[in-house]
Amino acid sequence: MNLRSYLLALAAALVVGTWMLSGRIGERADAPSAERDAGAAAPVMEVAVTELEAERVERFLESQGDTVADRDVQLRAETGGQVAAVQVEAGDTVAPGDPIVELAMGDREARRTEAQAWVAQAEADFEAARQLSGDGFQSQIAVTEARAALESARARRAAIEEEIDNTRITAPIAGQVESRGVDTGDYLAAGEQVVRIIDVDPLVAIGHVAQQSIRQVETGREVRIELATGDTLTGTVRRIGNAAEAGSRTFRVEVEAANPDGLPAGVSATLRIPLGTVRAHFLSPAWLALAASGEVGVKTVDDADQVAFAPVDIVRTERDGVWVTGLPDRVRLITVGQGFVRPGDTVNPVPADASANGG
Length: 359
Description:
Elements: H1 3-39, E1 45-53, E2 55-76, E3 81-86, E4 93-94, E5 99-103, H2 108-134, H3 140-165, E6 168-170, E7 175-180, E8 187-188, E9 193-210, E10 222-227, E11 232-240, E12 250-257, E13 268-283, E14 289-290, E15 296-301, E16 307-311, E17 313-318, E18 321-325, E19 330-336, E20 347-351, H4 352-357
Parallel strand pairs: 1-20
Antiparallel strand pairs: 1-19, 2-9, 2-13, 3-5, 3-8, 4-7, 5-6, 7-9, 9-12, 10-11, 10-13, 11-12, 13-18, 14-15, 15-16, 17-18
Helix pairs in contact: 2-3
């Protein structure tokens, strides 16, 4: 090997050695840093907590429904004729027997006079036949025929008298005239509607209760009715259906409530049936969480500042929150930051008010 080749080989060896030496030194310098990172503690998450105490609240079985009038009558004519007079307007209050509509008599009075004459003649014929039969001058068959003629005449007279009575149409119930379908001069046929009368005192609220809960409802139980109009009534269960509806498997429940102010029928209603009291906590819906199993619950902090998940049952809902059971009487509830921590995590709990004031 000549001198030139020797010098080139020596230079190459020095370069490789220097590179390997620098790599080992860099590896040794980085090792303590990696070890320090592996042993470092994870940062503690700060969460806002609110301390809550259970209160005694009333549980309700809630049902959505609507209201109907206690009685709703479609008053119809029982005989035909021209309307001679109308005594009511829509909105009028009526009592049983109050006049509603009067029909023209037409030839009815003449037909009644004729019917009365036929009855008088038949009574005379029957009396004569009965006397002759007693003297042996008339057969029993003749007496029977005379009695039949008398009964027929009396039936015709009763029919025309009933027809005359039906020309005076009166209110069958107490209530309010909801609508009127006739006016003076109109012709009414038998069976045609005259007026609609409804009685809304009491008012009836109708709801449907699921089959799982129907055993908790009984007749006579007090019910609170909240109407879509903003009004509230208190009533009692008067009837519970005996068979579930095929599609929904719910039972019809009727609640009767005094309605002296005449609140309207046909509006939506929420029926709240009380089921007793329980100890519960009032929460904002934003504080609720969902476990991987699908359970609804909340995240709490224990005395060791560790996060725990507690399943809850919603027993009552209100406009600005929910009442839940399943928690200890006193509980520290995570209200801010619950979405960033998991059960078992150690956290730094800060009172919710202090957290809000601190920005």
